[in-house]
Amino acid sequence: LAFSLGLSVADPHPEWLAGFSAGLLQAAQTYHCPLIGGDTTGARGATVVAIQVFGYKPAHLQTLQRNLAVPGPGGVRKWQAGAGPGWAWLHAFEARGRLAELLSPEQTLLWRALQAKLPHAFTEQARLCLFRPAPPLSLAGRLGHYASAGLDLSDGLAGDLAHLCTASRVGVLLQGQALLDALLEGFEPGFATSLSAEQQYFLLEQILKGGDDYELCFTLDAQHQARLAHDAHDCHSRVNCVGHVVGSANVGSSKPGAVQCEFRARLVPVPASFNHFSGAVTS
């Protein structure tokens, strides 16, 4: 329905305030969610932005819950915006001179080599996904009627998917090749094969743990695949099947919540998830 804004500005540059106001207005107009009040003050130290959104769920809309996933055919689907996860957070930390918080020296060398190969348009799209995310609200409104479970991704695929699995008391087996194919969709033919095995594993690790990805992950019974394909096309959304819901025992765990990933016919380590409070990763 509307939102309120609390803004404490440490160093009120007119250029920054104009850009912030223009971006906020654009978002309010795009999602029909006007600003109805709040407060603006000066601050010591860092600038703080607090936004509170008010709304309601119409009775005819079904909500996606994370506790209703069941093993069986159909699989785990992921809505992907543009460049997708694994890239945006690396760009953001690099821009702030904090890349060492995420990557070891060896990984940093891999990242530099990949940057030299990536098309400029792709890296710009990754930045756009981070700073101007476009959540798939129209698709999300339809998914509630037939997707079995789902949640938004903000702390990385592996970490957030583990929450869904724990709530549903199931496990998930992700397909590493499907994740890579989704990330590199639209690249020139042969680009993926030009990557070394080490570079592919590095990419896969970033996809699994990358935070601030602003995407949807949901599970779907096989009988609804045609309906999903229609809705995704109608909503101009990219949706990829990246894994399958299985019983916990099928992913080598005796307890719910297990997330594992298969790549090149073997299980690969699933990295720790993103942690907003430390700016790095956590178990």
Describe the structure.
- Helix content is 37%, strand content 23%.
- It is an alpha+beta fold.
- The strands form three sheets. Strands 5-7-4-8-6-9-10 form a seven-stranded mixed beta sheet. Strands 2-1-3 form a three-stranded mixed beta sheet, with no helix packed on it. It has a two-stranded antiparallel ribbon with strand order 11-12.
- β11 and β12 form a beta hairpin.
- α2 packs across α4 and α7 packs across α9.
- It is globular.
- The model has no long low-confidence stretch (mean pLDDT 84).
Attribute tags:
10 helices; alpha+beta; 7-stranded mixed sheet; globular; single chain
Quick rundown:
This protein has 283 residues and is an alpha+beta fold. It has helices at residues 14-30, 88-95, 105-117, 120-131, 137-143, 157-168, 176-183, 191-194, 197-209, 225-234; strands at residues 2-9, 35-42, 48-54, 76-80, 149-153, 171-175, 215-219, 238-246, 259-263, 266-268, 273-275, 280-282. The strands form three sheets. Strands 5-7-4-8-6-9-10 form a seven-stranded mixed sheet. It has a three-stranded mixed sheet with strand order 2-1-3, with no helix packed on it. A two-stranded antiparallel sheet has the order 11-12.
